[in-house]
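Lecture notes, continued. The same structure-token format from the folding unit now serves as the input rather than the output. Read the line below as a description of shape only.
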């Protein structure tokens, strides 16, 4: 017992001896170790806070994404079957691809769309993912398409609107300009072009290819070139001009577009219970 009691203070006495015999380098190393230990104590808290914020953001994003009816199991597959059944094989030809995108009109309103490219036609479908039915079809002959623009969105200098991301605009009559009445009519649909941008669900892995506007632009260019070769239009330059340039939207205030886009009114979404 006496040896054990003496052994304990012997270890305590060695520590001051070793520290007194150490030089400035050892003291600097000790100071560095102390600083490192202090940093290690603060790092876990910072990491936990960062992980917490990331998990909160991801959970909120997942909650918002689940509101889109197109994400409901089996909904998209049924929609694609329905729109493919509306393709006229004799007039339109075989289907080259299907895309889920958002149309941007001349007042900066977003509208959910299913888009098909066939041998002869570009088809744009307004599809109701709630009732699982097609409400409207727009057909554009590929041999009339003369320009495809790809780039970011731009607005007039005095415009209060803005739009992030990139888009694709398809032109099919370069000689016809929209009239003044059409430009200021939010319901006008006689424009010789149509504009698309990414669908909000594009970041989901299973939807990434379906919402890729870059691939859509390339496939559309190839299909239009082939259509020009097979069926040239008299008095029209045969070929498609592909441009990398900003997509100009001549809208200035657009309060309805701002509210509609913020609340995703152009998409089929679950909007909760409405009542009094």
């Amino acid at each position: 017992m006496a040896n054990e009691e003496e052994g304990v203070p012997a270890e305590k006495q060695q520590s001051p001896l070793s520290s007194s015999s150490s030089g400035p380098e050892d003291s600097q190393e000790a100071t560095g170790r102390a600083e490192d230990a202090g940093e290690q104590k603060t790092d876990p808290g910072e990491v936990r806070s960062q992980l917490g914020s990331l998990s909160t953001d991801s959970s909120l994003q997942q909650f918002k994404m689940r509101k889109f009816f197109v994400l409901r199991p089996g909904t998209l597959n049924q929609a694609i079957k329905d729109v493919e059944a509306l393709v006229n094989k004799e007039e339109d030809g075989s289907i080259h691809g299907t895309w889920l995108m958002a149309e941007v009109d001349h007042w900066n309103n977003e509208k959910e769309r299913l888009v098909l490219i066939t041998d002869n036609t570009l088809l744009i479908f307004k599809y109701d993912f709630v009732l699982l039915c097609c409400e409207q079809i727009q057909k554009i002959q590929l041999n009339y398409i003369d320009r495809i623009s790809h780039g970011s969105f731009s607005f007039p200098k005095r415009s209060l609107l803005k739009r992030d991301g990139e888009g694709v605009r398809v032109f099919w009559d370069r000689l016809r300009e929209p009239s003044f009445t059409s430009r200021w009519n939010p319901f006008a649909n006689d424009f010789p072009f149509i504009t698309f941008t990414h669908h909000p669900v594009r970041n989901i892995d299973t939807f990434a290819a379906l919402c890729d506007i870059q691939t859509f632009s390339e496939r559309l260019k190839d299909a239009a070139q082939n259509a020009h070769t097979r069926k040239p239009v008299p008095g029209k330059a045969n070929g498609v001009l592909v441009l990398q340039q900003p997509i100009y939207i001549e809208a200035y205030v657009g309060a309805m577009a701002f509210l509609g886009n913020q609340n995703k009114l152009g998409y089929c979404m679950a909007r909760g219970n409405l009542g009094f």
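Point for the exam: The first helix runs from residue 2 to 21.
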